[in-house]
Amino acid sequence: MKISRRNVLSSAAVAVALAMTATPSFAADLMERTKGEGLRVAFYNFVPYAYKDANDNLVGTDVETLAAVLEKMGGKIAEAKSTDWGALIPGVKAKRFDVVAAGMFVTPKRCAAVRFSEPTFGIQQAMLVAKGNPKGVMNYETIAENGLRVGTVAGSAQTGYARSAGIADSSIMELPDNPTGVAALKAGRVDAWAVSAPGVRQIIASQDNDELESSPIFAEVAGKPAVSHGAFAFRPEDAEFVEAFNAVMKDFIGSPEHVAIMEKHGMTADELPINSTAELCDG
């Protein structure tokens, strides 16, 4: 069969037309899409940022804050899709969705891949300890100084904090999750379970007894800030939209409406951001 130039051009034109028809939502400007059909959101099912409640409704600090800011911009959320953590950034870059609302911490490495909004929260640290804090745990440094044992989620920021404070690897018990860590603490296998301050509060609230309590909240480890800031992640090319989004969000973060959303999901005004995205991206 002889293929003519005209047939090749016609086929190419059809292919382009089909591609445009298959993905119409991404042909529009992000602001237009926000105010029209709405944004496609990716979330990671995790308390308190974005999760399904008992009635199967999507709730959480991130998704509710995002919805509130978009509403003030005259926009809305079109749909929200539960996504594996490792697929969030690749998915937004590949235009499978427009924004990540998952309590994602702002780090220099992630800043190189996505365009973060300004932070919506800044999480400080705490330790889960036995009632009465019999070992006098105040922070990572007291654990190191007194030769105590600390439990952390394997691969978490808390594991890094423990090492930076001088706690020997032999005194760090890396475990898979909070329930396992709580069990280790109750059994006396560790003297403290290291998570974020909101994480400690949520664990205590979930217990049926009063065997556990929180250490004092702290914001430094080994003399360095240890406040994890979360923000919304957009595509790098959506910088103009992110700037407009930040301008609206600036007046919302820390407002009574925002703090009410945080408190509803176990966070407090103590978790408001203290650094800008530019500072966090610079490391």
Provide the fold topology.
Blueprint: H1 5-22, H2 30-35, E1 39-43, E2 51-52, E3 58-59, H3 61-72, E4 77-82, H4 88-93, E5 99-100, H5 108-111, E6 115-116, E7 121-123, E8 125-130, H6 140-145, E9 150-153, H7 157-164, E10 172-175, H8 178-186, E11 192-196, H9 197-206, E12 212-214, E13 220-221, E14 224-225, E15 228-230, E16 233-234, H10 239-252, H11 256-264, H12 277-282
Parallel strand pairs: 1-4, 1-5, 9-10, 9-11
Antiparallel strand pairs: 2-3, 6-16, 7-15, 8-11, 8-12, 13-14
Descriptors:
283 residues, alpha/beta, D-Maltodextrin-Binding Protein, domain 2, 2 domains, five-stranded mixed sheet, three-stranded parallel sheet, 12 helices
Fraction of residues in β-strands: 15-25%
Outline: elongated
What's the number of domains? Answer: 2
- Output the strand order for the largest sheet: 10-9-11-8-12
Helix count equals 12
CATH architecture title of the largest domain: 3-Layer(aba) Sandwich
Number of strands: 16
Helix/strand order, N-terminal first: HHEEEHEHEHEEEHEHEHEHEEEEEHHH
**How confident is the prediction overall: mean pLDDT?**
89
Sheet with most strands: 5 strands, mixed
Radius of gyration: 23 Å
CATH homology superfamily name of the largest domain: Periplasmic binding protein-like II
Q: Give the C-level CATH assignment of the largest domain.
A: Alpha Beta
In the CATH hierarchy, the third-tier topology of the largest domain is known as D-Maltodextrin-Binding Protein, domain 2
Based on secondary structure, the structural category is: alpha/beta
Q: Share of helix among residues?
A: 25-40%
Distance between the termini: 61 Å
Low-pLDDT regions: 1-27
